Amino acid sequence: MVGSPFTNLFGQSPIRPIQEHIGHAHQCAVLLQPFVEAAIKNDWDSANALYKQISDLEHKADEAKTKLRANLPSSLMMPVDRGDLLLMVSKQDKIANHTKDIAGIMVGRQMQIPLEISESMRKFVEIAIETSAQAVKAVNEMDELLELGFKGRVLEVVEKLIEELNRLEHENDELQIQVRSELFQIEDSLSPVNVVFLYKVIEGIGALADAAQSAGGKLQLLIAR
Amino acid sequence: MEILAQHGHLLLIIGCIFAFFMAWGIGANDVANAMGTSVGSRALTVKQAIFIAIIFEFAGAYFAGGEVTSTIRKGILDPDLITNQPELLVFGMMAALLAAGCWLLIASIKGWPVSTTHSIIGALVGFAAVGISVDAVNWGKIGTIVASWVISPLLAGTISYALFTSVQRLVLDTENPFQNARRYVPIYIFFVGFMIAMVTLLKGLKNTSLNLDFGFESKFLNSMPLATAVGILVAIFGALLLRRVSEKQPEGNQNRYANVENLFAILMIFTAAAMAFAHGSNDVANAVGPLAAIASVIESGGEIVKKSALPSWILILGGVGIVVGLATYGFRVMATIGRKITELTPSRGFAAELGAATTVVFASTWGLPISTTHTLVGAVLGVGLARGIGALNLKVVGSIFMSWVVTLPAGAGFAIIFFFILKAIFG
């Protein structure tokens, strides 16, 4: 007895896999803090080891994404829109991708963070990671959302979480401007190529926070079907 | 005529064996679907589900199975056309039972979608149209039955949708879901008890000599007070069970609603019983309807009587067959199904079960043979439409629709073959 038509009616809910996926992506982002710390200290052994971990986690997130996509046939009836869900996954995935890109550039060039901007840089990375953590919080509300059939007071809870997410991303933007201007102050004393890549790294960190915010935005779309 | 006189007892015994075989098939396979929702949502263990199924399948068959049985026995064929050849009816009914039983067995082994109702109806129509004549089939009645196959999932879906939405409003989406669950779950339990009692009083007590007369206008109103009393008693019993559920969140559970779901799991004990009762009332009748026809022809010495009391031993035979099927094979199927349906939490499972059970029980009282599984599928889709279930494969709905299309001619084909074999042996 393989399965009756009745059992086959029930597909696997995408909610747990999507939560797992953002979990991997966020773990990846968390490692950026010690990584940047190692780069400030010029400790490239630790940085390399951390880069390897980041790379592994990014790979894990990729696998989770692929699996999720494979298990979402268009014949599936879900409480949320399939297209929005897939968009949300790709936004979540960008959190991990940006983290790996940033770490990759820095490891490859053994890029030292100038001491003058290290303080702002720390704060900048910290808030980017917090933004990602806030997105995780919002996505983790999805089982409560399902429990209430995507209606009612849980919507307000999610709205509040997303408001905070937007605030964090905005704060991260402000920090980005600050780090850039600090870098601009000292860029004449650095090698031009290094400066170009520093700007790239700063952009990447901003993009990480941005991806987290976009994931939250897609969650809002999902709810408001 | 002389065939029946000569072989009457033998034919009746063979008929009993065939009916038992089909009932066994239903118990081995079909019951698992009916009870799978309770096992899947962890409201019941497989053992508990079997225990409930045994009692209530049997009760449903005995108290509310009569109407469907008589539809199958005399609503589908026009007996006037075969009054001078009653043995044809006996052969045909035996062939139909064996055909449906075999088809169930094959489909179970292959893991195909099956419906006991569709296979027996297909078998009956097949043998009547080919073995007697196309006019022997009561096409009007068949039309009603087919229409009910479409209407029943829709109705069940509507009821489930409404039930689930009411749970959202009254319990889940409130300041204190746990308190509200404690307050409202007994009301749902009352509804379950009331409905089952009502159906039993209206239709089932023909088998017993209990006569209720409170001096009201109709039988319906006469049944009301007692059904209400039963509902209240059952609800009180349920409320006592609910007290044993603690408000503390279970250890290690992330879900804020875990304790509320535990209350709904108690409710599912009752809806599972209702589901088993409904299934027994409708699907057992599929197995014993033809047997009742065989028995009535043989016992009346070859007369095809339109009105004859349904002997209760026949319903009991069907009930026992189902229970044996459950105990020998069905529990394994139930365990499999229970493992697979994990996306259904008690607050949804109960809505689906109650929606389906209500629909099936009422169809039974109208004497309409409907497919319990299809009705349940409709009910689950109703909850899905209320955004209550993580993922449902709509492709399966297509495959179930296909199963209608395949099962009818398959049942018919088998029945025609067996009919001619029986005719050759005895005729």
UniProtKB/TrEMBL annotation, chain A:
<comment type="similarity">
    <text>Belongs to the UPF0111 family.</text>
</comment>
<dbReference type="InterPro" id="IPR038078">
    <property type="entry name" value="PhoU-like_sf"/>
</dbReference>
<keyword id="KW-0175">Coiled coil</keyword>
<dbReference type="InterPro" id="IPR002727">
    <property type="entry name" value="DUF47"/>
</dbReference>
<dbReference type="Pfam" id="PF01865">
    <property type="entry name" value="PhoU_div"/>
</dbReference>
<feature type="coiled-coil region">
    <location>
        <begin position="151"/>
        <end position="185"/>
    </location>
</feature>
<dbReference type="InterPro" id="IPR018445">
    <property type="entry name" value="Put_Phosphate_transp_reg"/>
</dbReference>
<protein>
    <submittedName>
        <fullName>TIGR00153 family protein</fullName>
    </submittedName>
</protein>
Automatic annotation (TrEMBL), chain B:
<feature type="transmembrane region" description="Helical">
    <location>
        <begin position="224"/>
        <end position="242"/>
    </location>
</feature>
<feature type="transmembrane region" description="Helical">
    <location>
        <begin position="88"/>
        <end position="107"/>
    </location>
</feature>
<protein>
    <recommendedName>
        <fullName>Phosphate transporter</fullName>
    </recommendedName>
</protein>
<dbReference type="InterPro" id="IPR001204">
    <property type="entry name" value="Phos_transporter"/>
</dbReference>
<feature type="transmembrane region" description="Helical">
    <location>
        <begin position="145"/>
        <end position="164"/>
    </location>
</feature>
<keyword id="KW-0813">Transport</keyword>
<feature type="transmembrane region" description="Helical">
    <location>
        <begin position="263"/>
        <end position="281"/>
    </location>
</feature>
<feature type="transmembrane region" description="Helical">
    <location>
        <begin position="185"/>
        <end position="204"/>
    </location>
</feature>
<dbReference type="Pfam" id="PF01384">
    <property type="entry name" value="PHO4"/>
</dbReference>
<dbReference type="GO" id="GO:0035435">
    <property type="term" value="P:phosphate ion transmembrane transport"/>
</dbReference>
<feature type="transmembrane region" description="Helical">
    <location>
        <begin position="376"/>
        <end position="394"/>
    </location>
</feature>
<feature type="transmembrane region" description="Helical">
    <location>
        <begin position="119"/>
        <end position="139"/>
    </location>
</feature>
<feature type="transmembrane region" description="Helical">
    <location>
        <begin position="6"/>
        <end position="28"/>
    </location>
</feature>
<dbReference type="GO" id="GO:0016020">
    <property type="term" value="C:membrane"/>
</dbReference>
<comment type="similarity">
    <text>Belongs to the inorganic phosphate transporter (PiT) (TC 2.A.20) family.</text>
</comment>
<dbReference type="GO" id="GO:0005315">
    <property type="term" value="F:phosphate transmembrane transporter activity"/>
</dbReference>
<keyword id="KW-1133">Transmembrane helix</keyword>
<keyword id="KW-0472">Membrane</keyword>
<feature type="transmembrane region" description="Helical">
    <location>
        <begin position="49"/>
        <end position="68"/>
    </location>
</feature>
<feature type="transmembrane region" description="Helical">
    <location>
        <begin position="310"/>
        <end position="329"/>
    </location>
</feature>
<keyword id="KW-0592">Phosphate transport</keyword>
<feature type="transmembrane region" description="Helical">
    <location>
        <begin position="401"/>
        <end position="426"/>
    </location>
</feature>
